[in-house]
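step 3/5: co-fold with calcium ion
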Amino acid sequence: MSLPLPLLVEPNARPTGGHLHHRVTATGFLAAFLALWAGVTSGSAAETPPPAAYGPVPTERQLQWQAMEFVGFLHFTVNTFTDKEWGGGDEAETVFNPTSFDANQIVRAAAEGGMKELILTCKHHDGFCLWPSKFTEHSIKHSPWQDGHGDMVKDISEACHRAGLKFGVYLSPWDRNHKDYGRPEYITYYQNQLRELLTQYGPISEVWFDGANGGDGFYGGARETRKIDALTYYQWPATRQLVRDLQPLACMFSDGGPDLRWVGNERGQAGATCWATLNAADFAPGSADSRRLNRGDRPGTDWVPAECDVSIRPGWFYHAAEDTRVKTPRELLDLYYKSVGRGAGLLLNLPPDRRGLIHDNDARSLREFRRLVDATFAHDLARAAKVTASNFRGNAARFAPANVTDNQRDTYWSTDDAATAPEIVLDLGKPVTFNVVRIREYLPLGQRIEAFALDQWQGAQWVEFATGTSIGNCRLVRGEPVTTDKVRLRITQAPVCPAISEIGLFAEKEKAN
Ligand code: FUL
Ligand code: CA
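step 4/5: write tokens
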């Protein structure tokens, strides 16, 4: 490499010392200038490679899931009609009889709430199937609904796809109806059912493996307690392979992954520190260490982000007695900040009622929640900021500070490898009032930042107004209003240089009720 070029690859070694200057010839200088200019405008990828990924990184299917952020659950089965949370497995198929089921109404309620996907309990622990499975008689084909000719999995999946939502399936491993539950034959049955769901209903974006198992059940009339070893009984490696083979883009959820992990509670809250990484080999469905799942493992061996499942009501299934206990828009908003805002995904349950519709109380609360989210995030107060940083990688445009305000997830600011504690300043040009800061890391390079601080410029000095840990897909720092014309983000702890794709400033204008 000729003399001037190191200027491009090592911006830290700026020729401030006289002797480097003296050795640069006029033509060398011109060449350097042109190369620098080309580098800044084109990104000079050849001269300045991106940073090496740190630790585990997301797969394509996980990146697609992370982009959704907010998805929905539909818990619907015989329990809706028996007023239970866990059906015993001995319910008559005839109890399942929604009077005015409308898949479009259900999907519309979800879409209006901003959900990007719906996951249907195709079979809950009671074993009753919402589709006419060839492998059991315990299904809607013996229910009065549509004279036994209906297929709710078909109706919901088609309504989702029509409305541009993705569709996922929940198939309970624990089955309190099936006579073979606890024996090897049941695993064949389970896989046969999964094959039906993965081949008959178009693209499946998520497969939800519930770890719950209470032991006792109907089990074909045996009415006994059957304990299984959650680690070995279900033959997870073979079942997972089936999903990979039939729906390669589907993310599999279970307590420990492989693609998405349980967040360790059913309150919808990720840890204040929440890594997308996990030592996944330590976990199997049903063997959860909920405190570890809540925050993840750092640095972790696998990329397994947390999905926060929570119901809009106290129960997972519809109970008329809970019509007045629907979470308020403010409560939903708080959950959003504690899940999506901590790098996780929010999976909110909307239980269809006995009519087969989303109750108006639920739909209304969800709609108002969405209005509040949109009112805040529609206007990014940092969009026009002038952005500078203490360092940017190779002085190349593709790593420039301004990449954090271009509203593109796939462009990012990064620094030279040695600059692991850099700072970036958003100059807003005039005083701006905000109370939410949104930071996103560029996920294909892994979760890189461990801790950060935010400062506001006050007259003659910087004043810190927030600190935080773990960023990942999305970190929402929400606090009291700050009015300033300059905001600074400092990376205070990181094993490698950062890769930050977005920084935004937002104002919550109204108080939700
Ligand atoms: C739990 C189940 O036992 C609940 O009924 C519900 O399906 C929830 C999402 O997972 O483990
Ligand atoms: Ca960007």
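step 5/5: annotate
Residues 460 and 486 are 11 Å apart (CA to CA).
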